Structures are given as C-alpha cells and as structure tokens.
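Pipeline run #58 for the internal structure catalog. This entry was flagged by the ingest filter as a single-chain record with no existing model, so it goes straight to prediction. Upstream metadata was stripped on purpose; only the residue string is passed forward. Reviewer on rotation: M.T. Logging verbosity set to normal.
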Amino acid sequence: MLKAKITCFADEISQDLEEQLDVLQQEGVSYIELRNVWGKNVLELNDEELSSIRQILKERGFQVSSIASPIGKYPVAEEFGPQVQAVQKAIHAAHVLGTPYIRIFSYHPPENADLDTCRDEVLRRMKQLTEIAEQNNVVLILENDNNLYGTSDERCLEILQHCASDSLRMAFDPGNFVKNDIKPMQDAYPKLQTYTDYIHIKDATFEPKVFVPAGAGDGEVDALLLSLKERGYDGFLSVEPHLQHYMPHASNPKRVVTAVRALKQLLERAEYQWE
C-alpha cells in the first residue's frame, strides 16, 4: 500500500531530544528531521553525541529522515573550503544516523548583485558538492529558500539540470515559493516535479507574507498532495511549521502539533495513507 512518511523539524518543539520525541510520538510520527539538538546544530555534534542520538532513536522507534544542514546558506563570495568540510561532516552524520538525505541550499549572492554575475560560481560549487555526495552514497536535497541563488523555480531547475545527478534532488517547499510570489503548483512544480524526491510541508499567504498551517494559505498543499499521490510518491513529507507569527501566543509544541495535524487532515481528505 502506498504510504507517504511524515517527518518533522523537531527542533521547533524544543532543543531537548527527548521532548522532541515525546511530542512526535504523541502525534504518531516516527521520523525526525535532525537540525538542532542540545543547543547544537547537527554539524557541530561530535561522535559521542551522534552515537547517543542513534541509540535514543533506536530505543524509541524513530528514524532520521534527513540531516537538515545549513550548507549553502553561506555567501558565495566567501571561501568554499569550509563548505566542503561541512558537507563531509554532514555525510558522516548521515552515515551514523542511517539516512541518505542531506538538506542543502544554493548560496547567498552578493547584496544587490545581478544573479548572473555569480551564476558560474554557484553552479561550480553545487556541482562539486554533488560529486562529493556521489562518491559517498548520499543524496543532497536542495531547498528553495529566500535570498539565495536558487530562490526561484527557474534557478532551482538550472542548478538541478547543471548537476544532472541522482545525488542532487529537490526538496520542494511550497511555502517558500509563496513567500517569493511564485505559485507552487501552477509555476514551480511542473518544472521541478521530475527532480523532486522530498517535500517540505510549509504553507504561506501571498498577502500578508506569513507562514500558516498546511491548507490555510496559498501554497496549494492539497493539490500538491493529490499530485504526489497520483505519482505514487511514498517519500517524506517534512513538517516545518514556522508558525510564530500565525500563533504568537502558543507554545512551541502547540505550534508543531497544529502543523502536523493540519497535514494529517489534508492527507485524510486526499485519502492518502501515511506512516
């Protein structure tokens, strides 16, 4: 039976791993998107901490869906060496924690610069990171985010076509497209669907530009889920709530629970199974 897998950026619950797992377990979620834990970014964790996380997750029946690294959220004008070191750390964490996926970004261009002026350098870096991923049996997933070379659907497509590798795929984020005045299903998804192996469940409104629970905004998340179901997608749906402005007085766990339940409602409406 076709089933998508719900996962979550659990650091939006708490910095404490056990509390993260408690909330997700309560919601029937058994995958976790590892980004920050115990006050550290995932790339700052040492071997002992990674081993401890692996043991805790195993004992509690969880698996890591991806290493949610900040690689590529970095000025393209700065040295590339630290980014190569960062991807090696992310690969090590992925191997220890048993996931093939590493989330990355596409570099900050110089302020007020024409994107074409940094095109060659961005593509060179993305190609080199992809080659490292190929050599180490991991898959980099490219998130469209704000103020990056690959903020638009066209630029994401350019990067993916240039690298032309199964080791660089798309982490499709409808909410981030909305934030940049791009219609996710009319404009972005038709271009990017053949490269999309991972989904970030984030919704937003065009006006005002605020993140909202899935289905409450202009991200066309319901249409995205129907398209994924028709395609036979059984991969990850990663809840990244960002609901601080939508629910300013709620607790962090409450915001995450609201976001997860909103996704479940859309899945039920689409008769799309999940685990």
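catalog note: The mean pLDDT is 97.
catalog note: The chain has nine helices and 13 strands.
status: ready for reviewer M.T.
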